[in-house]
Amino acid sequence: MLNQSATILIADDQQDIREALRLLLTSKGYAVMQADNPVAVLDMVSQAAIKLVLLDMNYRRDTTSGQEGLELLEQIKRHDPHLPVIAMTAWGSVELAMRAVHQGANDFIEKPWDNNRLVSIINAQLERFFEAENKRRYQTIAKLQRDHFTTEVIAEAPSMQQVLTTLGQVAPSQASILLRGENGTGKNLLAEQIHTWSDRSDGPLVSVNMGSIPEGLFESEMFGHVKGAFTDARDGRTGRFELADGGSLFLDEIGNLPLPQQAKLLRVLESGSFEKVGASKTQTVDVRIITASNADLPGMVEAGEFRRDLYFRLNTVEVMIPPLRDRKKDVLLLAVHYLEKQQRRYNKFFTGFSAASEQELLNYHWPGNVRELSHVVERAVLLGQGDCLTVNDLSLAGTPNDRQPPLTSPESSEASIRSLDEVEKHQIEQALKHFNGNVLEAAQALGVSRSAMYRRMEKFGLDTGG
User: Fold this and answer.
1) Residue 11 in 3-state DSSP?
2) Looking at the chain, which terminus has fewer C-beta neighbours within 10 angstroms, N or C?
3) 3-class DSSP state for residue 432?
4) Structure pTM?
5) What is the full per-residue pLDDT of the chain (466 aa) written as tens digits?
6) How many Cβ atoms are within 10 Å of 8's Cβ, its own excluded?
7) 160-321: which CATH number, 3.40.50.300, 3.40.1080.10, 1.10.287.620, 3.30.450.20?
8) 386-389-393-396 Cα dihedral, nearest 10 degrees
9) Cα–Cα distances in Å, from 436 out to 37, 58, 449?
């Protein structure tokens, strides 16, 4: 499945040429988007998962210099130097074609084109592109892992880079760190990272889910007990604080701790000492505290559900972990990372994700964050049957609120199925928004006349300004 349902952008100001290319490419399994002016080309390249551009070199009928195309080519390559561009020139314009290649075009085709030759060029360019793209992703993942020491931290998004920078600054200190964020954002992993970066990395890291400890066993679990301390205490038990001595203690879901247990925890944090249940001897430990919660702790403090003094004891440094929907730059990197991991686990191999499935991953809202992404990829690896993972393999059947409006072309065979009227209305709204309500420019971008544009706007109840 060489083309991987790749989306190709046809950039030409002549509708008959765009339509001929669309029919040819969709018959070969490609998804197609169209643009008839440089502004629309750059808009689509910047927003959609375009994998190749067929670029006409002239957009005004009164010129054949190709200068518009050369300038547009430079802008495309500035935005994404790896995106393959095939220049389309008039027959005999060899000099212009060579100038385009010199300025970054990956190949060229002359009009009128030979269908077989054009498809062959597209296949060759996409094959190189996908191989290079996968290689770049794996190199990026490897570099991030080298930089961050642990194998699971993948973070190129600026918001997550800032989190790692902050944690890198405070990890060597003894300060208590509170990690806050939604479920599945990787707080456990970041706690491990803090421990790795600290001067306690040779000591133990002990993790406790505070919401899973029965209220009656809190003291035994955290501080330990001696033999015979209570019924069924046939043997002594070492508590979590003692186990973490000289290292770090990670208290996950701290917001689930009932108020009576909060008081007991606070006493130990303030004094650094405790007694096992049933013992009279006081023990002192040297423990660095890391906590995490998905709850609104400040709100709980105001509501009297969480002790203010304990909150201040825990949040010497408080770090908010961004949800995956705000880390778009990391989604595909994480997906590739989990794909590689699950392929090894289940002894299967895929070339990667199809272009349509990549766009699906980017459009999805990820209410379960990184944990959900990991599970989605694992399920896809288990159930996938083709050369690459498709939209069907991902099975992202979320609610409308769980996905963002698709940027892929409505012609994509794997795009969400909507009525033609819905698709047309959405495209018109997007064009009007892009051109700040300028109907003429929006009509030109969509390849229709101004009068036709007004008729469609009236049909869909859009403001015509009159």
Assistant:
1) strand
2) C
3) helix
4) 0.61
5) 444 467 899 999 888 889 999 999 988 888 889 998 888 899 888 876 788 999 988 876 555 677 888 899 999 988 888 899 998 887 657 778 788 888 889 898 888 888 999 999 998 888 888 777 766 665 665 555 555 545 557 888 889 989 988 998 999 999 999 999 999 999 999 999 899 888 898 899 999 998 888 877 888 889 988 776 666 667 778 889 999 999 999 999 999 999 999 999 999 999 888 888 887 788 899 999 999 999 999 999 999 999 999 999 999 999 999 999 999 889 998 998 899 889 888 888 888 888 888 888 988 999 999 999 999 999 999 989 888 898 899 988 654 445 544 444 433 333 344 556 676 787 788 778 777 777 777 776 676 666 677 777 877 777 655 4
6) 26
7) 3.40.50.300
8) -170
9) 17, 25, 18
Kindly state the helix (H) or strand (E) to which residue 275 belongs, with its residue range: strand 273-275
Phi-psi region of 447 (alpha: psi -120 to 50; beta: other; left: phi over 0): left
Q: Are 10 and 18 in contact (CB under 8 A)?
A: yes
Burial 211-245 (b: 16+ CB within 10 A, else e): eebeeeebbbbbbbbbeebeeeeeeebebbbbebb
Phi, psi of 459 (to 5 degrees): -60, -40
- DSSP-based three-state secondary structure for 143: helix
Q: Return the SS3 of 187.
A: helix
Residue 104: DSSP 8-state = T
Kindly tell me the sign of the dihedral angle through the C-alpha atoms of 290, 292, 298, 304.
negative
Q: Where are the domains of the chain?
A: 7-136, 160-321, 328-459
CA proximity to 395, closest of 381, 405, 380, 373: 380
Determine contact, residues 307/255, Cβ cutoff 8 Å. Answer: no
User: Is 160-321's fold the same as 328-459's?
Assistant: no
Query: Cβ distance 86 to 53 under 8 Å?
Result: yes
- Region of 426 on the Ramachandran plot (φ > 0 left; ψ -120 to 50 alpha; else beta): alpha
List, in sequence order, the alpha helices (H) in 81-114. 94-102
Is domain 7-136 annotated with CATH 3.40.50.2300?
A: yes
- In the block, tokens 């009007």 appear at 432
Domain covering 328-459, topology: Helicase, Ruva Protein; domain 3 (1.10.8)
- φ, ψ at 198 (rounded to 5°): -85, 170
